[in-house]
Design brief:
Blueprint (H helix, E strand, L loop, with lengths): L15 H10 L6 E5 L5 E5 L6 E6 L3 H19 L3 E2 L3 H10 L5 H5 L2 H13 L4 H12 L3 H5 L21 H15 L7 E5 L5 H7 L4 E6 L2 H13 L6 E5 L8 H7 L3 E7 L10 H11 E14 L4 H5 L4 H5 L9 H10 L2 E8 L1 H17 L1 H6 L4 H19 L3 E10 L14
Parallel strand pairs: 1-3, 5-6, 5-8, 6-7, 8-9
Antiparallel strand pairs: 1-2, 3-4, 9-11, 10-11
Helix pairs in contact: 1-2, 3-18, 16-18
Protein name: Cyclopropane-fatty-acyl-phospholipid synthase
Family: Belongs to the CFA/CMAS family.
Keywords: Lipid metabolism, Methyltransferase, S-adenosyl-L-methionine, Transferase
């Protein structure tokens, strides 16, 4: 016989949102979750013998309402407020992805919240001014912030480990740069445009091989750091760093000076910040600035094509709290967008598991420098959100929900170059 325990001051009745949340967890079919409730009780959902295994502790039932309302965005808000925690964010995110069909609300939130956040995302349009605001919100957190946990190459994109998980991160980043150089058959004396040059990692690496690189960025912090690095290395004659929007590369003066003058174009994880409405402008810029027969290599994070439609018509934790204005393409989307600008795009390399390993190393470095980050003024709420960001992305790459790819792009024979000024700026 089961005794019914009446609500008391010590054990108040469970809120409706909590009951609904627990009902969703009972649908878990892959792996298992050990849940600790605010009163210290534990429940196991799923098969305790199955992996992945994850744990979640709810400190405040308000966390359940936040998750049901806004999915992963609500989870991030609850984590930031310390209404919940977990010993392994990556394991929890992997469990959620594996069980997405069963617990969709916990990932995507309710319909009203999806509409609201989709509208917020659309208002962060990547106009010239909007792009500056969006980039400032992420990259201009300060060079000291990124220098605290990135490797010495100051590279903030996926490394290439070539099946060697023990490879030092700086070596793996240089291996990625060399792969780009080899894929494009770059040689000393060639002239390369880099769209989105970050802190100058590729520009310096290529310049040391005698390749001329013109790098552009709209982050003031990145521009200052990259320029200083180039000057310190005495490579300013080979690596030029400009504070400039890629769309301004096709203004009248620049076209007169550089139209079709680049032997290659490189763009490493900048495409995610372009925004779908400006994809035609981006690809037309590649078309206009490449020499006849020349190629571009675009490294971009992609989202599984099967999930593109839900993704593009909503928002998520990453776009709300980390990368405002961001938009990942599906691989097929990327190819089709290039074709609309009379370009051929081919995926030549996919290395999502390497990104998961890159993120593991970034997270370990980040967590080892918490005292430094706090001294820079970043509080624990900010640190919790960034720790979630690392774990969230690591799980997505390990589970194949996202990938990172090298696309080689070139003009289709017989097609004239389109005018990028015909597209929205």
């Amino acid at each position: 016989m089961t005794l019914l325990r009446l609500p008391t001051a010590a054990h108040p009745p469970m809120p409706l949102a909590a009951r609904l949340f627990l009902a969703l967890l009972r649908r878990i079919r892959h792996g298992h979750l050990t849940l600790t409730t605010p009163d210290g009780a534990q429940q196991v959902f799923g098969d305790a013998r199955d992996v992945p295994a994850a744990a979640l502790r709810i400190h405040d039932w308000r966390a359940c309402r936040a998750i049901l309302r806004a999915g992963d965005i609500g989870f991030a808000e609850a984590l930031r407020a310390q209404w919940l925690d977990t010993p392994d964010l990556t394991a929890l995110m992997r469990l959620a992805i594996r069980n997405e069909d069963a617990v969709a609300t916990t990932l995507h939130g309710g319909p009203l919240a999806r509409v609201w956040y989709a509208l917020r995302h659309r208002l962060r349009r990547n106009t010239r001014a909007g792009s500056r605001r969006n980039i400032h919100a992420h990259y201009d957190l300060g060079n000291a912030f990124y220098a605290a946990w990135l490797d010495e190459t100051m590279t903030y994109s996926s490394a290439c480990f070539d099946d060697d998980a023990h490879r030092p991160l700086d070596e793996a980043q240089c291996a990625k740069y060399q792969r780009i150089i080899d894929t494009l058959a770059l040689a000393p004396g060639m002239r390369v445009l880099e769209i989105g040059c970050g802190w100058g990692g590729f520009a310096l690496y290529a310049a040391r091989q005698g390749i001329h690189v013109r790098g552009v960025t709209i982050s003031q912090e990145q521009h200052a750091w990259a320029s200083e690095r180039v000057n310190a290395a005495q490579l300013a004659h080979l690596a030029e760093i400009e504070l400039r929007d890629y769309r301004d590369l096709c203004d009248v003066h620049d076209l007169h000076e550089n139209d079709g003058q680049y032997d290659a174009i490189v763009s490493i994880e900048m495409f995610e910040a372009v925004g779908e409405a400006w994809w035609p402008t981006y690809f037309d810029t590649l078309s206009r600035l490449l020499k006849p027969g020349a190629r571009a290599l675009v490294q971009t994070i992609t989202i599984d094509d099967a999930h593109v439609e839900r993704y593009r018509t909503s928002s998520d934790f990453i776009r709300e709290m980390i990368f405002p204005g961001g938009m990942l393409p599906g691989p097929q989307q990327f190819v089709r967008a290039a074709q609309q600008a009379q370009l051929e795009a081919r995926a030549v390399f996919a290395f999502g598991r390497d990104y998961a390993q890159t993120l593991r190393l970034w997270r370990a470095s980040f967590e080892s420098r918490l005292d430094t980050l706090r001294a820079l003024g970043f509080d624990d709420a900010f640190i919790r959100i960034w720790t979630l960001y690392f774990g969230y992305c690591e799980a997505a790459f390990d589970e194949g929900r996202t990938d990172v790819m090298h696309f080689v792009v070139q003009r289709c024979d017989g097609h004239p170059r389109a005018d990028p000024r015909a597209h929205p700026h």
